[in-house]
Amino acid sequence: MVAAAVVVAAAAVVAAAAAAIIDVSFNIEQ
C-alpha cells in the first residue's frame, strides 16, 4: 500500500514537471 502511494505520488510529480516544462516551452514560442 505504501509503495503504491509512493508510485502514485512520484507519477504526479513527474506529470506536474512535464506540464510545467510544456507550459514554459509554449510561452517561449509565443
UniProtKB/TrEMBL annotation:
Give the protein's recorded name: Uncharacterized protein
